[in-house]
Structure formats: structure tokens, C-alpha cells
Amino acid sequence: MTSAATPEPKRPRLRPAWAGRNYTLLSVSAVVTTLGAHGALIASAFAVLDAGGDGGDVGLVAAARTLFLVVFLLVGGAVADRLPRHHVMVAANALNFLSQGAFALLVLQGDPKLWQMMALSALGGTGQAFFNPAAEGMLMASVSGEQASRAFAMFRMGMSGAGVGGAALGGAMVAAFGPGWVLAVDAVAFLVAGALRMFLDVRHIAPREPGGGLLADMRDGWREVIGRPWLWTIVAQFAVVVAVVGAAESVFGPLVARDELGGAGPWGIALGAFGVGTILGGLLMMRWKPKRLLFAATLSVFSLALPSAALAVPVPLGLLIAVMFVSGVTIEIFGVSWITALHQEIPEEKLSRVSAYDWFGSVAMVPLATALAGPAESAFGRSASLWGCAALVVVATAAVLFVPDVRHLRRREPATAAPHDPTLTDPTLAEPPVTPR
After folding, report:
1. Which pLDDT tens digit goes with each residue over 195-221?
2. Which residue from 174, 143, 168 is spatially nearest to 20, judged by alpha carbons?
3. What band does 24 get if pLDDT is binned at 50, 70 and 90?
4. Letter string b/e over residues 247-257, b meaning 16 or more CB atoms within 10 A of that residue's CB
């Protein structure tokens, strides 16, 4: 006979104790969409080429997405702080599902027109503009202050792994089945992710107070950014860094690979090393919690000059792989520290607006930088242009270190950081562990 006092065996947890319902749903849905999106990037380019387009047409389709992303980002941030964020996320996923589904149908039917692909790509960029600020605000509201950096590191690690896997799987599927089916899979990924996000629990988030309109909300977000020197200076820094790194890797990198390294294969290996570095960087940041958040983050950005310098030489493939790996690790040091600082310092009701300005700074100058890469090569030469990219990264990053708050902003002790998601602290609201099938 079993004694009544005998305790029941504990069920093993399949997720960390700090990973509440919202965090788990956000992570799983993000991995699903990232897998699909990275395959779709390859598929959309081959869809344009298969339809008789050239490299310029591929650029136009990509530019349409980026343009509408930039145009609507600030509006998306204001909307996400005005309406329930999970509603904005689901609506954006629905728009992406429809646009990618229509893109896939056009390609599968044959003879898609360039203007049609550009229009659908623009719709996808619009959906992303509303989704990104809402998703980042929702993520930051889903974890406690004590475990925030570990949660953000795991989230980004999952995204990095999905990105690497999605690109590899997408390339293989394009070769085996054609780009149309890969675009269809991406559409289904948006549908699945949107369905998952419908189950987010927002009871712990206070209802939004009616404001003075979208423009007033956008101005309020701007005041929130400009009132914090550490915030606006790093956003400005990354406007430069992302633009020149993007130009180096999307324009100059393939050219150097073609002329000096043996073609697309070696360049793909180097990019894969960057992806592996981001995963290991995430693992590092799950354990390391630098006290001076922004100081550690900014120091890590200097290494992003190394890929441009390596391509300028150019170095042998083995050294380039090592450089790309290191830059992948260090961008995760920055990314986790940065989102932890935002989570710690920005009021919850303004997270999405601030995130929108952050995203805007990161993407606004990318189209200009990639457009100027060709003329810069013609005017100064490829090597000099790449050295210029490396120098801009170093100068922009060094300038940020002159801001006192960047050097001195410290991670708060757990007792001073209030938890956001009640499923992390109230066991009656937490889901039991789910056993995978």
C-alpha cells in the first residue's frame, strides 16, 4: 500500500521556469516565420530570374519591400502602442500570408509580371513594418527583469538557428521544387504563426489610454528617444553601421568571392560561419551578464569592421570564415545587451514606439548605401570602398563611447526590476509543461 504522505513524482519541465506562456508562444512562432522567411528571400530572387528578370529586377523587388518597411515603421510603432499588440501582430501576419500566398500563386501559374512582384513585396514590407515594433514590445513585456537577458539570448539564438536552417532548406527546396512552392511554404508559416499568436495572454497589460492621435503618439515616441542620449546616439550609430555592413556583404562580398575566392560556394560558407557565430553568441549571453550593458555592447560593435577589412585585402577563405564567425558572436553580445537595456529603461506602454525608431534607424539608410556601392567602386575602387566601410564602422562606434550614459548605464539588480508577465510569477496562470508529440 502506498502511503498518502508519499509525494507525487514531479513532471519534468520541458522549458525553463522563467519561460512563461507568452514567451514560449512568441519564440515558437518567431522560429516558424524565420524558417519560412529566409527560404523566401532566396525563392523570390529566383522567381524574378526565372521570369526573365536580371539582377536589377531582383533589386527592385527587394527595394519595394524595404521602401514600404521604412515608410510605415513609425506608424506601425504608434499603432502597436495604441492597440493590443497581439492584435497588430496577427493582422500583420494575415497580410503577409495573403501577400506571400498571392506571390506563390503567380509564380506557380507562370509568367508573373515585375510590377506584380514588386507590389506584393511592398505589401510584405508593410506587414513587417507593423509587425516588428509590436513583436519587440510584446517580447520585452513577456519576461521578468531578473531573467530578461537570458530570455532575450535564447530568443535570438532560436532566430539565428532558424535563419541558418531556413536559408539552407530554402535553397535546397528551390532547387528541388522551384521557387513557387517555397513561397507557398512561407505563406503557410505566416498563417501558423498568426494562429499561435492569437493565444497570447495580455491580461497583465493595462488597457491603452486614448491619446491625441497617431501623430501625437509618434511625437511622444520621438521625445522618448531624443530625451535619452544613449538611445538616440546608438540608433544613429547603427544607421551607419547597418548600412555600410549591408553594402559590404550584399554588394562587395559576392564580387570579391567571384573574383578572388572561387565563387558563390565559398561566400556561402563564410555567411554560414556568421550564422553559427550568432548561435554561439546567444549561448554566451545566456551565461554572461555584463554590468555595464551599453559599454560591453558598444565595444563588441568594433568587430563588425573586420569583414569589410578582410574583403578589402582580400584575406584567404579560412581567415574570412574566422572573421565572419567572430562578428557573428559579437553582434549577439550587442543585440542581447541592447534589448535588455531597452527592457530595463523604457516604460512598457512606449516600448513599440521606441522600437519603431530603433528599427527605422537600422534600415532607413540601407537602400541608399547599397545603391551607392556601385558608384563608390567606380570612383574609388573596390578595396578603397571596403576600407571606407570598415572606417565608418570604427568612427561611428568610437563616437558613441563619448556619451557618458553609454559608458556608465548599469544593469539593475533583480529586486529593482519588476516582472511583466504574470505567468512567470503566479503559478496559477502558468501553463503546465507540454509534452511534444
Report:
1. 999 888 877 666 666 566 778 888 888
2. 143
3. confident
4. bbbebbbeebb
